[in-house]
Write a structure and sequence with these properties.
- This protein is mostly helical.
- About 50% of the residues lie in helices and about 5% in strands.
- A five-stranded parallel β-sheet has the order 3-2-1-4-5. A two-stranded antiparallel sheet has the order 6-7.
- A hairpin with a 2-residue loop joins strand 6 and strand 7.
- Helix 8 packs across helix 10.
- The longest helix is centred in the middle third of the chain and has 25 residues.
- The chain is globular and about 80 Å long.
- The structure holds flavin-adenine dinucleotide (FAD).
Amino acid sequence: MEGRSRPTVWILGDQLNRGVASLAGREPRDCRVLVVESDAKLRSKRWHIQRLHLVLSAMEHFAAELEEDGFEVDYRRAPTMGDGLRAHVEEFHVEDVVAMEPMSWDGRGMLRRLGVETIRNNQFLCHYDEFAEWADSRASFKMEDFYRWQRTRLDLLMDPEGPAGGRWNFDHENREPPPLDGRAWPEVSRFELDAIDRELLARLPGYWGAEPDGTWPVTREQALVRLDEFIATGLHTFGPHEDAMLAAEWKLAHSGLSSSLNLGLLHPSEVVEAAEAAYRRGDASINSAEGFIRQVIGWREYVWGVYWLWMPDYRRANSLGAHRRVPPAFTGAASTEMTCVASVIGRVHDHGYAHHIERLMVLGNLALTAGVDPPAMTEWMWASFVDGAEWVMLPNVIGMALHADGGTMATKPYASGGAYINRMSDFCSRCRYDPTKRTGPVACPYTTLYWDFLARHETTFKSNHRMAPQLAGLRRLKDLAAVRARADEVLAALDAGAL
Ligand SMILES: Cc1cc2nc3c(=O)[nH]c(=O)nc-3n(C[C@H](O)[C@H](O)[C@H](O)COP(=O)(O)OP(=O)(O)OC[C@H]3O[C@@H](n4cnc5c(N)ncnc54)[C@H](O)[C@@H]3O)c2cc1C
């Protein structure tokens, strides 16, 4: 029968690009394409509606684009991924199925079990095998060292005499508190929802969060618009304000590109090349271009590498023995008077998004100091953010935010009291809690819990020389007993959704 021996290329939901290794160079007559929408995945978490819509819409739009290009696409809804593949193989009498290496540990196991041939993943600039080789060749593998290695081998922001601008790192220039002059921040285009989106939303009832409003690109064309916009209007202010937070501003000068990168709509190389080109044209300062490129070829690729290096044990790491449930103020089960949490959770509700410092120093910091269970926190964040995926969530939540890996990734916990949030935002000036107070009814919960956290884990942190100044501060506290008593009240109120 004609077409019987054509191989099937199975495109997974985060490989939505004609350039992925399994599709690159293929013509419509060479293969058939399979896309499976798994009901089990759809029901596996309490997804934010924008997250679910984004992934499914992007999958359907990509399938439609391939069909327009002449590919035969089998877009299949099935109880599980495996069921979808088996039904496809049976219907089309397929002998060979190929896929690009998936982005998750479990996905890799599934493809192996199903006998699917895999092709090396080309969605990152550093494959995890290369990362493992790099890591293997050194005693410690710091992100900064990896980033410099990437810059050099990829020849990004490099001048003949060394790193562009004469330095590798411009973090010092990039930690400005937020400007409070009421300035306008870059706007982002909203993309009109089409028939695919409307049909999708009609069959996805019962999820939480604000309905999709076209903020997140669902096609490569839209993602390229977002990239161009960011380069033209956001990049030049990205650096100085990348750590700042403002109650009235959900994105400041951040790029909003993570979901497009993580779904494969954009490749990291085109994103960083566009940023470097802006710097070379004189449209972006070195600290902004460097700060942004560091995020993409440094942090993003680093967490991808460590995920594969440390899985599967990494997902169970809980070195601080934290078992508290995710606060109701995060999940939406309760409101909160902590302005920082209310503002950030408001963005998560409205957009399925918060920027890096909000994730780390508002949500992560509170979860760390309160002792929230790492798998539960990972699960909640994964379901709540439009860019969530296990490979990026685990190192960021387990390693960076919760210090649950005992310091394998970040040598020191990212714990801080209200003073940091006060310095980097305008939240505290409009909050009923006072960041300078650690006891009493108006003490900032962050400040109280910070000291309580240090006291709870003093023995563990004693051997960490980077924690010496904090522990010295703890020992100087005259009112530690009162702080710890207040911490008990704060934790009870946090659990009860009454803070
Ligand atoms: C607790 C926690 C959870 C996180 N969860 C996710 C997640 O599920 N998915 C995700 O993509 N990012 C995650 N991050 C990283 C980072 O917060 C987001 O990538 C970023 O906020 C996305 O917004 P943006 O595109 O506007 O980023 P920008 O600030 O504009 O940064 C540019 C790009 O750099 C990359 N990047 C920057 N920092 C990181 C990082 N630490 N890890 C990986 N990539 C990075 C992203 O691709 C991002 O699009 C998490 C960080 C923390 C602390």
